[in-house]
Design goal:
single chain, alpha/beta, TIM Barrel, eight-stranded parallel beta barrel, three-stranded antiparallel sheet, 13 strands, 38% helix, globular
């Protein structure tokens, strides 16, 4: 029903308009008492011990989460366990609200089941995210906090932005993701260089060491790093006692697309997500898993649009996986399908 009827209607609208519609629709319809139980019965995963995962010292009901970027402002986390997700990553959160890059900034490549976006960390800022997260009721869903810097913050001050978000969210999320690999913020990728990265990680890990409760920290890596750059990221993460990786962010590559080149060129810059990213992200997962001898958990994300894709990520060494573009193209039923396959 989704791919035959609902998706074609939604795809008549621009991607950002659809996202706004979905956010408003979910928040409205879930106010109706019977809606959430109905969605859970239709799309939810069963609570089987075979699906549970203990990763990062946290117990996940299943290994499937919703990637950062969907719930930028911590609006939707109370509802998405009904769709079968065991965890959701909110953000990217920046200290101050910012509009992001000029529109249009999100584009579908339907033939490739892909999206190019250059959103630019558009979000309502830390205070708004905190306001929403402070309403968090007891729930089984695990929440990750994806943190970044404001666009106008120079890189030599970036550590202050990351620390600000880290401190603010510390008591309200279950784990953190340091996002220095998004291709849509000017010069952000320079923060992946060892010296810049050390400055950020030293700040957040020092603060964590002063807290009573330990919160896991993961580093989100780019699929476009060279082997040497990836080795450097792994070494730095290990040096500062990080707990794992999110692999991967979106890619700037435009290789092997079915969409006509002139259409892709007309879109311009942005991070590519969806099926064309699948092979690259799996290779990065496999490399990190091998390099760390499986000692550091990996959340695998990028190009998961089928049961087979999900199992491939897990076989490559991912402890958990996240969906985003695949969820948009395949619909909410994909989570239950993956759960059933893992259960078998």
């Amino acid at each position: 029903m989704y791919k035959g009827f609902i998706r074609p209607l939604l795809f008549l609208l621009k991607p950002e308009a659809v996202h706004s519609l979905v956010v408003k629709g979910v928040k409205f319809f879930f106010l109706i008492p019977f809606v959430k139980p109905l969605v859970e019965r239709t799309f939810g995963c069963n609570q089987s011990p075979k699906l549970k995962r203990n990763v990062l010292g946290l117990e996940f009901d299943n290994p499937i989460g919703l990637a950062a970027g969907f719930d930028k402002n911590a609006d939707l986390y109370p509802y998405f366990d009904a769709f079968g997700f065991s965890f959701i990553e909110v953000g990217t959160v920046t200290p101050r609200a910012q509009p992001g890059n000029p529109k249009p900034r999100s584009f579908r490549l339907k033939k490739d089941k892909a999206i190019i976006n250059r959103m630019g960390f558009n979000n309502k800022g830390l205070e708004n995210a905190l306001k929403n997260l402070k309403r968090r009721r007891k729930s089984r869903i695990i929440i990750g906090g994806n943190i970044g810097k404001n666009t106008l913050t120079p890189n030599d001050k970036a550590h202050e932005d990351y620390l600000c978000c880290f401190k603010g969210l510390y008591d309200h999320v279950d784990y953190f993701v340091v996002n220095v690999s998004c291709p849509n913020i000017k010069d952000l990728k320079q923060l992946q260089d060892s010296d810049n990265l050390r400055g950020i990680l030293s700040e957040v890990t020092l603060y964590r060491s002063s807290q009573k409760q330990y919160k896991p920290i993961l580093l989100k890596v780019s699929p476009d790093l060279t082997t040497e750059q990836l080795d450097s990221n792994i070494e730095t993460a290990q040096q500062y006692g990080l707990d794992g990786f999110v692999a991967t962010n979106t890619t700037t590559s435009r290789e092997n697309l079915s969409t006509k080149k002139q259409i892709v060129d007309s879109i311009g810059n942005g991070g590519l997500s969806g099926e064309p990213l699948k092979k690259k992200s799996t290779e990065v997962i496999r490399y990190i898993h091998s390099k760390t001898k499986g000692s550091m958990p990996i959340i695998g994300v990028g190009g998961i649009s089928s049961v087979e894709d999900a199992l491939e990520k897990l076989d490559a060494g991912a402890s958990l996986i996240q969906l985003y573009t695949g969820f948009i193209y395949e619909g909410p039923g994909i989570v239950k399908k993956i759960c059933k396959a893992i259960h078998k």
